[in-house]
């Protein structure tokens, strides 16, 4: 790796000597107290992030019969089941939009989020040999678990466009806000990933709990039902789930229904940022012991 | 100061034994409840810590090749891990000037489902190379590994030898300013091992700073200008290989000062060598020209000088020099009685010298055991382990058995052209 910046691992206690020729200088010492969030090494190792994502995607589809088509089948089949059970039998309202596309618009960001947290939960532990023998900023591992499902998301998005054409749903200008809501989803996914992956190294039952967590979270988000189903006095608490803001934003952008309440978006965004920052700090604190306990 | 590649100052690393046990939250809660009710648990837990590194300090200049030796568990790998930033030191600090490449294990990160080509890129990236760098070096890497035709097969179909060769080929083209290697100097079959050693030699010519951890004294002697001897987390010795390696060998053979008794003889003779009929006071390993040496080439003659003390008048004393290989295999014996030497039976100090025939032993480390029997091998008068020496041979290591000598071959088939 070509690094031309001087990088320090932790707070230096002595003034650095002047070494004009040398381009890289590292101080290895025990990190004390609050971690300074130095994200420069993560940028320096961005190529490794690319390779790990590439590896995960390639490996997932090697020796499969239908390969990348799984990225399309999964949300489609889920949507069909939801459409039958929740749409037709349970007759859950869908905000004046055909239920299948209502569900699919919510499923899309949801599947991205749930895949991210499922993969990242086990990510550090499954790459334990890398952690024990190679140096790189450990943040790269949950980060790669959060970036990889974006590819699946992109593929399913194409299907969504096809469905929108089929149902003759035309979006309005709000579709331009979609990237922002996607960023919100990524931010929330990263935050939860940092927490889960770091906790799982120390407490392996976290990894076992993730499927349950994902299921619970799905029902706590307006995927199969609209937000209007939630009574008004519960709305505030309900919006603490950042995926509420994401899904509402997606439905607004894609299906041209009315905009979500501003408070929902505000709470969701703050929560996502809180998850992200707290996850980052927690991860950096736990990072010191990874190689010793993984 | 500007020429220092690594400056380690009082590095220390503490591990908690049993820490790697993966607690579940349930265990953690029950343990907390237990410790509230019973204080004894907390005391027990405090004892389970140990220091893998204790106050290690050294300075390494740019371009130096340093070897790190020591028994298993001495802290060598831990030191490399700390310098590689894989784990944090508990105390102390180290300053590292230069791009670091760490080779603690060959092939970490290889994924079996991916092809050889894909793994070259993946492993290269894991080691710290950029994609551009790998593109540039790709052909050289493939050439080194000799696996051109298998590049597009999944690595899970490779033999273990092929796998390791590909990994090593990538690692060999890592071009860092500081290289940290943990016991992976050469892998694969002999021909490939020679390639690896050549690559290692070319490191000497470059101005890279190299730290090598190894149990292979050959490689250390061949490559390093300086050796650090680590024991139980501390640096016992730091200097040129000729000085430090004998200290290490002395320690592992247990021959500090008084020459130790081999285990098989302890029952018969007891532990105290000075109470026996014959005590070996000193033993030197010399070459034919009577110069002290520890490395011999295949075919050279070793001279062993023994100073002994005879306390009882012995009937037919027979001094036997036995060469025991590093894995405990006894390889050969030379007997003074069978070779026709009459040992004077006067009491007190005496001196013997034996010039061994040209060495036919394969390349390895051999300890010299001196055993004194009577002429019929029925009475044991003394047994002690002396120093050790290396035999060097280009091809034959202990994989090939115990010894090698040329034989006479002839071919019967008239059609074959005589070579």
Protein described:
- The complex is a heterodimer of chains A (294) and B (419).
- Chain A is mainly α.
- Chain A has one domain (48-293).
- Helix content of chain A is 66%, strand content 1%.
- In chain A, helix 4 (99-126) packs antiparallel against helix 6 (140-147) and helix 11 (242-255) crosses helix 12.
- Chain A starts with 24 loop residues before the first strand and ends with a helix.
- With 419 residues, chain B is of the alpha/beta class.
- Chain B has two domains: 4-249, Rossmann fold (3-Layer(aba) Sandwich), CATH 3.40.50.300; 254-400, abc- transporter (atp binding component) like domain (Coagulation Factor XIII, Chain A, domain 1, Distorted Sandwich), CATH 2.70.50.60.
- Helix content of chain B is 27%, strand content 32%.
- Chain B contains ten helices and 17 strands.
- In chain B, strands 5-6-7-3-8-9 form a six-stranded mixed β-sheet, sandwiched between helices.
- In chain B, a hairpin with a 5-residue loop joins strand 16 and strand 17.
- In chain B, helix 4 (116-127) packs across helix 5, helix 4 (116-127) packs across helix 6 (160-172) and helix 5 packs across helix 6 (160-172).
- Chain B is globular.
- Chain B starts with a strand and ends in a 27-residue tail after the last strand.
- At the A-B interface, strand 1, helix 2, helix 5 and helix 12 of A face helix 1, helix 3, strand 4 and helix 4 of B.
- Strand 1 of chain A pairs antiparallel with strand 4 (91-97) of chain B, so a sheet runs across the interface.
> Got a strand count of chain B?
17
The number of helices of chain B is 10
Strand content of chain B: 25-35%
End-to-end distance of chain A: 26 Å
> What oligomeric state do the depicted chains represent?
heterodimer
The CATH class assignment of the largest domain in chain B is: Alpha Beta
Mean pLDDT of chain A: 85
């Amino acid at each position: 790796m070509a690094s031309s910046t001087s990088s320090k691992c932790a707070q230096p206690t002595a003034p650095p000597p002047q070494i004009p020729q040398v381009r890289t200088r590292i101080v290895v010492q025990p990190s004390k107290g609050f971690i300074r969030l130095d994200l420069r090494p993560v940028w320096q190792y961005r190529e490794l992030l690319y390779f790990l994502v590439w590896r995960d995607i390639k490996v997932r589809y090697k020796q499969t019969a239908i390969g990348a088509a799984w990225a399309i089948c999964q949300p489609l089949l889920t949507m069909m089941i939801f459409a039958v059970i929740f749409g037709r039998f349970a007759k859950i309202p869908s905000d004046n939009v055909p239920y299948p596309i209502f569900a699919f618009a919510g499923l899309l960001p949801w599947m991205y989020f749930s895949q991210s947290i499922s993969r990242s939960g086990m990510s550090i532990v499954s790459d334990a040999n890398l952690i024990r023998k190679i140096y790189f900023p450990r943040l790269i591992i949950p980060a790669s678990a959060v970036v990889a499902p974006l590819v699946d998301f992109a593929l399913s998005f194409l299907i969504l466009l096809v469905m929108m054409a089929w149902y003759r749903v035309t979006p309005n200008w709000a579709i331009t806000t979609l990237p922002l809501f996607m960023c919100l989803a990524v931010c929330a996914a990263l935050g939860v990933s940092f927490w889960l992956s770091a906790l799982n190294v120390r407490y392996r039952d976290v990894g076992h709990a993730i499927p349950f967590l994902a299921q619970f979270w799905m029902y706590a988000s307006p995927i199969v039902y609209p937000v209007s189903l939630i009574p008004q006095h519960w709305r505030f608490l309900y919006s603490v789930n950042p995926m509420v803001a994401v899904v509402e934003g997606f439905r607004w952008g894609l299906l041209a229904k009315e905009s979500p309440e501003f408070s929902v978006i505000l709470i969701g965004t703050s929560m996502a940022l809180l998850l992200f920052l707290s996850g980052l700090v927690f991860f950096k604190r736990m990072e010191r012991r990874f190689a010793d306990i993984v | 100061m500007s020429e220092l590649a690594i400056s380690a100052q009082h590095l220390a690393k503490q591990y908690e034994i049993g820490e790697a046990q993966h607690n579940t939250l349930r265990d953690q809660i029950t343990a907390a409840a237990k410790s509230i009710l019973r204080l004894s648990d907390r005391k027990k837990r405090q004892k389970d810590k140990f220091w893998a590194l204790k106050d290690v300090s050294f300075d390494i200049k740019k371009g130096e090749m340093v070897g790190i030796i020591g028994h298993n568990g001495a802290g060598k790998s831990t030191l490399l891990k700390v310098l590689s930033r894989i784990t944090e030191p508990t105390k102390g600090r180290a300053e590292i000037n230069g791009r670091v490449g760490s080779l603690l294990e060959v092939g970490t990160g290889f994924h079996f489902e991916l092809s050889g080509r894909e793994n070259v890129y993946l492993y290269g990236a894991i080691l710290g190379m950029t994609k551009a760098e790998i593109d540039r070096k790709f052909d050289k890497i493939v050439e080194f590994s000799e696996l051109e035709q298998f590049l597009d097969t999944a690595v899970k179909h490779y033999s273990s030898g092929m796998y390791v060769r590909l990994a090593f080929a990538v690692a060999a083209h890592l071009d860092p300013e500081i290289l940290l290697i943990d016991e992976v100097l050469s892998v694969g079959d002999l021909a490939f091992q020679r390639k690896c050693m050549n690559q290692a030699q070319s490191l000497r010519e470059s101005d890279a700073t190299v730290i090598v951890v190894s149990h292979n004294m050959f490689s250390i002697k061949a490559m390093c200008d300086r050796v650090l001897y680590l024991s139980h987390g501390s640096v016992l010795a730091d200097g040129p290989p000729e000085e430090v390696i004998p200290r290490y060998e002395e320690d592992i053979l247990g021959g500090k000062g008084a020459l130790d008794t081999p285990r098989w003889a302890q029952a018969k003779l007891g532990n105290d060598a000075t109470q026996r009929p014959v005590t070996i006071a000193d033993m030197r390993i010399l070459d034919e020209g009577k110069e002290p040496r520890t490395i011999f080439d295949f075919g050279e003659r070793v001279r062993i000088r023994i100073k002994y003390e005879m306390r009882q008048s012995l009937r037919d004393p027979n001094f036997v020099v036995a060469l025991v290989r590093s894995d405990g295999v006894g390889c050969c014996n030379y007997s003074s009685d069978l070779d026709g030497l009459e040992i004077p039976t006067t009491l007190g100090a005496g001196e013997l010298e034996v010039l061994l025939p040209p060495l036919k032993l394969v390349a390895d480390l051999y300890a010299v055991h001196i055993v004194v029997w009577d002429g019929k091998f029925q009475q044991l008068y003394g047994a002690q382990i002396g120093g050790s020496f290396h035999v060097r041979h280009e091809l034959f290591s202990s994989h090939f058995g115990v010894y090698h000598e040329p034989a006479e071959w002839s071919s019967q088939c008239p059609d074959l052209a005589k070579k």
